[in-house]
Structure formats: C-alpha cells, structure tokens
Hints:
Elements: H1 19-27, E1 33-36, H2 43-46, E2 52-56, H3 60-71, H4 73-88, H5 98-116, H6 120-125, H7 127-140, H8 157-176, E3 179-181, H9 185-192, E4 197-201, H10 217-228, E5 233-239, H11 243-249, E6 254-259, E7 272-279, H12 284-293
Parallel strand pairs: 1-2, 1-4, 2-3, 4-5
Antiparallel strand pairs: 5-7, 6-7
Helix pairs in contact: 3-4, 3-7, 3-8, 4-7, 4-8, 10-11
Amino acid sequence: xxxxxxRLMKYPGAKTAMLPExxxxxxxxxxxxxxxxxxGSGLVSLNxxxxxxxxxxxxxxxxxxxxxIKNNSSRxxxxxxxxxxxxxxxxGKEILQNRSRNEIVRKxxxxxxxxxxxxxxxxKSDPVLRAEETLFRFNVSFGGLGKTxxxxxxxxxxxxxxxxxxxxDMISARVHNWRLENLDFRSVVEKYDSSEVLFYLDPPYPxxxxxxxxxxxxxxxxxxxxxxxxxxxxxxxxxxxxPMITGIFGRPTFLRSYPSNNRNDGSRPEESKKxxxxxxxxxxxxxxxxxxxxxxxxx
Length: 299
C-alpha cells in the first residue's frame, strides 16, 4: 500500500511502511487525543487527522527541533534553505551528480564535527541554530542515525532536504497545533492518561544503540506495568520474535509483515520484517484478520 505522507527527516526505526495501518487504526479508535510517547521524527503524528496531538521525546534535541518549528518556523526554514545554497549551489553553480553532492556533504559535516566550526558556541547557545543543525544532520547522515555520513551508495542527501523544504510549510502548520513535551515515558503517560486519550508507543528497539536514550529490559517491564493500568487506549508496536518482549508482554494482538527498506543497493530482493502489535481496544479490520489468519505458533 502506498500513500502520500509528510516526512520531516530520516530517522532510524521510522514507521513509513506501517504508516497506512497505524493511521487507519488510530483514526478508527474514536480517541480525541493521541500522545506520541516516543515521538522521534514525528512521522506518525505528522500524518494523523482529526485528533489533537501531544508529541513527546526524552531527547532534548528532538524536543528543541519541534519547539523551534512551532515557535520560530520562518527563521528555521530560512536557515535550512541557506545551508542548502551554501553546500549545493556554491558560487551559484548547481551540483547535479549525487556522488559529488554526497562527498561535499560528508566532508562538510566531518569538518564541522571535528570542532573546527567557527560558530560552534553560537550554535550551542541559539536554539534555532541547534534545531537546524539537528534537522540537517539527520537528513544527510547514513540511515538517519545522525552520526555517520552518506556514501555514494545512498540517495543524494540533497533530495531528502529538498523534500523537507517542499513540505515544510505543511509540517509547520501541523506542529503549530501540537502540545510538546520532553518527558520520560512514565511521566508523560501519567500526565495525560484519560479515557479520551490514545497512547502510541514505539519504544527504542531492544538491543539497538541507535538513540541518545535507549531502552533496557527493566524499561520494558515498567512500560508493561504502566499500560496495564491506563484508563486510555494504547497501541504498542515492536519487532516480532524477540523472546524478552513476548516474555514481558505475552502474545501479540496481531502480527504484520512489512517490506524492509534497509538494503544496501537495489540488487537484493526486497525483504520483509514482521511486527507485533499490542492493543487494549478492538479494531474491526485487525479482529477479522486475527480470526481468519492467526498464525499457529507458541510463545
């Protein structure tokens, strides 16, 4: 299934393939407020309609990014366009080849990361400059990790930024109406829990050190205790077939397979990944699938 969607930046673990199903389930839940507990790149929240959104992330740089989109949108957009012009239109000359573009970005970011940036203090002290740095870094880094930078095998980083700029005004309009939080998952669930709220839970992948704030086994156990007593609804999605997860959360409500976009080049066949969903409310489509297609397996 394909769909048009808003995307701010590349990000590890983004739910692009799952987006149609997630938005359908949330849209049919009847909730009035969606709390995106582990908001990350904001992909799911950006593509919700007809609900109020609370975006939360414990990472202060991600929180700052969305805060500046909300409060200083025009300046942040100007800075991003200015950076594009500096890197990809030097002296007014267009750089067309992907490899050339990637090499320029890679060298520029490595130089910047090596403490040679003359405005390092200014960037640290100015929240809008920090937000632009965060947005640019994730869009041009390998796999959206914000740490290693593009190679000539990756799509041109300019294309990702150009798409962000093209969608920026629509993204800004959505974020303007959000409530933003920078809280631990325990605090944000306790703060917003009510019968009108749906919590979307996409916690850090177990065993992956992709984020500035990762999850340990005890965090998953505490998350289970927390969602067992919420007054609101929740959707939790995790990778399937992780013994620690099934040991804590039990049998999933349902399973889905999605194409994996994590391929090195186009020569390999498209792989799929199976995701486990846990929910505390009925979804008519998923319930029908469970009855007719429920896999025979033990946990």
